[in-house]
Amino acid sequence: MKAKEILKKFASRRLWLHLFGMLAVVVLLIFGVKWWLQIYTHHGEGIEVPDLYGMDYRKAMDLVEEDGLEIMANDSTYIKEMPAGCIVVQSPAKGMLVKEGRTIYVTINSLTIPRVRIPDLIDNCSYREAQARLQQLEFRVLPPRLIDGEKDWVYGILLDGRHVRAGDLVARESQLTLVIGNGAYGDYYYGQDEDEMFMDSEAEEGQQEDMTEDNGEIDDFLPVDLDAYEDE
Questions:
Q1: Hey, CA dihedral for 208, 201, 152, 119, is it positive or negative?
Q2: What is the pTM of this model?
């Protein structure tokens, strides 16, 4: 009896009208929310991001502000082939559609040349090794300066005529001159400020001139009793 009543209710036209009505409300609600979101978020609408690569940062700023966008430099790098201050990376990428007021983050080419620490080369390696290491750090190595010393051994590094030491920060691509030995062994040393090199050869020559040789029996460095020779 109960089963027949349940089947009778399912066959009722009123029940099916209620069910279809509820389904229609749900569908309308879904489409209504989607439509409202599209209007609220301006879906499918936006400003196309311009291509800023290689452009000067100040010019790029004027361009994006005219389009209703903003720009911010959040990083820098150094590419010697590109002008200083130009944009090398941008996000969002060119051609993307963004909302008005969106910030474009860019990486610009450094306005100054990065500085690199001088490696420990002085009195520590040969000319070829020092030249290779400096060139690897993108320094420009000029023809070497020769001094008396072990052949091709590095005794100093010059930058614009002044000595630099290991650990000094020097602009990349600077022109450096290696001070190396010419194979003539001699005594040498750096001055206290390491701005000039001095040789001891002149001092040694002066000492040699003061020393005279005597082939006789009298030793110049021993006291001599002249009276004893006269008595003989």
A1: positive
A2: 0.49
